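From the pipeline queue, job 12 of 40. The input is one protein chain; the requested action is below.

Action: predict structure.
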Amino acid sequence: MVPKVHTVVCSGNNPVHIPHEFYEQGDLIIGGIVSHIHYIFPIVSFDEHPSRVVIKNPTVIRKFYQHILALVFAVDEINQNPKILPNVTLGFHIYDSYFDSKMAYRTTLELLFKSHHFVPNYICGIQKKVVGVIGGLSSDTSSSMADVLGLYKTPQISYGSFERAINDHIKFASFYRMVSNEDLQYKGIVQLLLHFRWKWVGLITPANEAGEQFLQTIEPMFFKNGICSAFTERTEYYMQFTGNMLDMVDPSKYSSQTFMKSKANAVVIYGESTSIIWLTSVIIARNVIQLILHQSVRKEPEGKVWITTAQIDFISNVLKFIDPNIRMLQGAISITIHSKEIQDFSDFLQVVKPSGQDADGFIEDFWEQAFGCSLSNATKMAGIMGTCTGEEMLESLPAPFFEMSMTGHSYSIYNAVYAVAQALHIMCSSEATCKRIKGGDRLSSQNVEPWQLHSFLQRISFNNSAGDEITFNEHGELAAGFDITNLVTFPNNSYVRVKVGRLDPQAPPGKELTINRNGIQWHRVFTQVPPLSLCNANCLPGYEKKKKEGKKFCCYDCDPCPHGMFSNEKGLETCARCPPDQYPNEEQNQCIPKKTNVLSFGETLAIVSTFSALLFSLITVVVLGIFIKHRDTAIVKANNRSLTYILLISLLLCFLCSLVFIGMPNKATCPLRQTAFGIVFSVALSSILAKTISVVLAFMATKPGSRIRRWVGKKLAYSIVLSCSVIQVGICVFWLATSAPFPDVDMHSMSEEIILLCNEGSVLMFYGVLGYMGFLASISFTVAFLARKLPDSFNEAKFITFSMLVFCSVWFSFIPTYLSTKGKYMVAVEIFSILVSSAGLLGCIFSPKCYIIVVRPELNNREQLIWRKM
């Protein structure tokens, strides 16, 4: 329920009223509570009523005078626009909060109930209708105003308050604000630090509830994103100083200011604009003290990147002739309220003069303190500083004192005025509330109640003159983002703010920040851009970070990368593995492509293997030719020449199949390698087994009455060769049908090479082929060993025994050697085993016979055979 307001004529003794106000009559009034002036509030002695105590010596935050002018400009612009509230004149009434919660209550009530004798809830004097109030700047001021305005359901639009203390839209149902939620700032700060890889960051906050809330929110976000706070500076300063600038700070702390000593280059400053005054005042005070102590004046802290939040504007509150040290803030990166340049606003500022501004109760103090002169010859200031001409130009003031371009806070005020005007326009266009006085054109303000605007403000949506859409979200906040600006300072202590980025609340999570790092001008002392802000220097490429015990996790030692890993940039947390086809160099700071590992025909090892295979093949052909040429001799006939031919041909194929292992693996050679080798060797071993069994059976058949004689002959030998070979063929066919070998690459077995190989498909089948050959060799060796001493002049058993011994020795040593080698050397081991075992069979079995046939032909006859038997 809205409290009933009584209109009466008030009388009585009038206390000293609030001296600063700016009033312009209109049909409907837009109120404004700005934060522009600091007072020296005297100590209350209770000798007289506190309301009668004279407040003296106002200190103006000159830059904030633009906030007042922005409101005036917006109202004047609307009144001149026939498309908004035609035939209705807007007025305004502006008061100051004096940066004090108690005064914010007082001026808010004064705004609603203009009274020299302060009587809350009664309208005294000139009747007016305040339809909405713009203000305040800080959370404390806005909250104090909301306590009063909320009772009367008067719309309040803050132009600079972010904190969550007044986020409760149920408690403050009449509260709106022209800024985005502060949570977006927190995300932007973290993303900004991550973008530039600043992990060692200082924090400066005011020692109040808002500062603690900031720390409680931002520090967990830092930890989650791997950022450490190098220090946390809680500042205590009071603007109610006694006229001495040094009273703002505690002089005992000048020598121990943490931010001056820390090696953290990135420092986040949270608070109000007075935080900048505190910062610059600390520098000035330190220099003054050093001069008093006859020390050399230290320069401002260099090498800092100041990161400021949207509540902060770059202001100076010292006299114009004292160096405000704005240059120490060169390169500062600020999250600022989004703004655009408004047409004609700069022209409006250029014609602002103190003459003819009797209704403006702010301009006199502003003008005198901005230009260091007096508008009245009667004041003490006139004798000291001279008299103002009234023709001084605002554009001559440096930016820390006054800006000609519209600041973010002024832009918010401008939009807030338009939001109220647009809501009134819609209401008057759609409702019968805006009635005219009978017979006149003037609006009867009695028919417009402030609470009626809420339903229109909550769904307001329009584009301002700069093209920005103005609309509130469900929390009564402007649905807009923030600008990222870079501070560029000049030798005359002025500056410009350059937009280098944007915080967009509509962007996907984690992508809210966009920034043009090439557009940033850093502090001149930085030799590396962007500068570093780390607990210790970045680890060089080839090293990774190792946590220091007892230190924050951002402090670390640098250890070389583990074997097989690399890091190719400075400051990497951990080393990484190279892609599978690459390996780290000796310095472990880059990856090198791996070489291919394959036994190609051009390599020495392949040339030797090829030459050996061809040489042994030629020898085998020569031996086969010798046996064919002397096929009718006794020694050839005695050893079953058909089996001899089969054995020699299979040995020839064994030598030649080793060539299949050389060269690039492909779909044709991979299935052929092991299967061809296994089948051909099985035929050779089967022939040897058949020859050995034939020798044994031939001896046993010579005994009288032996039944074995019927088994002696070619059929048995052929049957043994065929049956033993068919089993190996069956194993190989099953292998090819179920899991055939195929071309493959092995990138992991060798650190610097990629092995091109034939994947066996089924290792079990591969060792099954080898195992079956070992089985045949073992039987042949056993039978030959037992028959080695049979009385026969051309008994092959002893030669077969020795050849099988060589064969088994080669292949039993093959398995461990094969498993312990990699790449082309594994292939070379198998080729070597094939050649050596085949050459062993060829040499041990056929060299004695070739010796007799070629060198001692006289022994190759039947008579010699019979003689030797006798």
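Job complete. DSSP finds 21 helices and 29 strands in the chain.
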